[in-house]
C-alpha cells in the first residue's frame, strides 16, 4: 500500500488546492513554506493525483476549556471510509492524535497528551463522515489539526484550527504607597489589560507582565503609578471571547488627602512637642541659675 509507508517529501499538490478552493474548502497540502507538512510522494504519476475524493473540514472550531469538541472531517463525494486509513495529526504524522487503520482504531503511537481522550465517530463512516471527538480539552490542545485520509490509490487531507478559550479570574486591584497593580490569571488565548480613569481616558502602565503557567494558561499583571483620578478601572480581555472583567476602585483622592492630612497633623504635633521641650529646658536652666546665685550670696 502506497502512502505513509512510502517515501516522504514536502510537496504542494496543486490539484487538491485548486479543487478545495473551488468548493470553498480549506486544504492544508500547500502553502506551508519551510514549515510544510510532509505529504507522501510514493510512485505517484499525474494520473494518480486526479481527484477521486476530497477531504474537507471547517476553517476553525472554538471550544471552552474543559469541554468536549468535535473536529469535522468529510469526504466529497460520499465514499465509504471503513477500509481507508484516517489519520488525525498536528505538526507531524507520528506520533498522531488519532489513527484508524485496517478497520480499527490504533493507539500504538498516539501522542501522550491525548491518551484516553480521543474518539473517531463512525456512525456515518460509510457516508464518508468521521469527525474526531476530543474529551475535556486543555489549553495545550489549541492549534491546527489535519485530517488525512488514504485509500489504496488516493489520498487527501484538510486542516481545522482548534481554539480553546478560557475567561480568567476577576481582576484583583491592589494599592501601595506609590503604585496601583491589577492582576488576573487562567486566560486563553493571551489576554491584554487596559487602565482607564473615571472619564474613560486610558492610563499608561509602567509595567506589564504576561506569563504562562503549568497548564498553559495565561497570567497577566500590570502596574501604574497612583493616579490623581478618584475612580480607575482595570479591564482584562482576549481576542476570542470579546468580553472583559472590570473592577473599579474609588476614593483615591480621599486616600491621598487623608494621608496628607495625617502628615500635617504629625508635623504640627511634633512642633508643639519640640516647643514644649525647649520651654521646659529653658525654665529648668533659669531655675538652676537663680538657685546657684542665692547659694553664694554674702551673709
Automatic annotation (TrEMBL):
Cellular component terms (Gene Ontology): external side of plasma membrane
Signal peptide: none
An annotated Gene Ontology molecular function: signaling receptor binding
One Pfam assignment: V-set
GO aspect biological process, one term: T cell activation
Highest taxon in the source lineage: Eukaryota
Subcellular location: Membrane
Domain Ig-like: 43-165, 180-250
SUPFAM superfamilies on file: Immunoglobulin
Keyword vocabulary terms for this entry: Disulfide bond, Glycoprotein, Immunoglobulin domain, Membrane, Signal, Transmembrane, Transmembrane helix
TM region(s), chain numbering: 265-286
Primary location group: membrane
Recorded family membership: Belongs to the SKINT family.
Name the record gives this protein: Selection and upkeep of intraepithelial T-cells protein 2
Taxonomic source organism: Xenopus tropicalis (Western clawed frog)
Highest classification ranks of the organism: Eukaryota, Metazoa, Chordata, Craniata, Vertebrata
Amino acid at each position: 500500500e502506497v502512502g505513509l509507508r512510502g517515501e516522504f517529501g514536502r510537496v504542494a499538490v496543486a490539484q487538491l488546492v485548486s479543487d478545495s478552493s473551488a468548493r470553498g474548502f480549506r486544504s492544508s497540502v500547500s502553502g506551508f513554506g519551510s514549515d510544510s507538512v510532509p505529504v507522501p510522494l510514493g510512485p505517484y504519476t499525474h494520473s494518480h493525483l486526479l481527484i477521486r475524493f476530497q477531504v474537507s473540514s471547517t476553517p476553525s472550531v472554538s471550544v471552552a476549556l474543559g469541554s468536549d469538541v468535535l473536529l469535522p472531517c468529510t469526504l466529497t463525494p460520499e465514499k465509504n471510509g471503513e477500509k481507508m486509513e484516517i489519520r488525525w495529526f498536528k505538526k507531524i504524522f507520528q506520533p498522531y492524535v488519532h489513527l484508524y487503520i485496517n478497520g480499527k482504531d490504533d493507539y500504538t503511537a498516539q501522542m501522550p497528551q491525548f491518551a484516553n481522550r480521543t474518539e473517531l465517530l463512525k456512525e456515518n463512516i460509510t457516508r464518508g463522515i468521521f469527525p474526531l471527538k476530543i474529551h475535556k480539552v486543555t489549553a495545550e490542545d489549541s492549534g491546527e489539526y489535519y485530517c488525512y485520509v488514504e485509500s489504496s490509490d488516493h489520498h487527501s487531507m484538510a486542516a481545522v484550527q482548534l481554539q480553546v478559550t478560557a475567561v480568567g479570574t476577576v481582576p484583583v486591584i491592589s494599592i501601595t504607597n506609590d503604585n496601583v497593580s491589577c492582576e488576573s490569571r487562567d486566560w486563553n488565548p493571551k489576554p491584554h489589560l487596559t487602565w482607564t480613569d473615571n472619564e474613560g481616558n486610558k492610563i499608561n502602565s509602567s509595567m506589564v507582565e504576561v506569563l504562562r503557567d503549568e497548564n498553559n494558561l495565561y497570567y497577566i499583571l500590570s502596574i501604574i503609578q497612583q493616579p490623581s483620578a478618584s475612580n480607575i478601572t482595570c479591564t482584562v480581555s482576549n481576542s476570542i471571547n470579546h468580553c472583559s472583567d472590570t473592577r473599579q476602585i474609588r476614593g483615591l483622592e480621599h486616600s491621598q488627602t487623608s494621608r496628607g492630612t495625617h502628615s500635617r497633623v504629625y508635623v504640627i504635633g511634633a512642633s508643639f512637642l519640640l516647643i514644649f521641650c525647649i520651654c521646659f529646658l529653658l525654665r529648668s536652666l533659669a531655675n538652676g541659675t537663680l538657685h546657684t546665685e542665692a547659694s553664694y550670696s554674702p551673709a
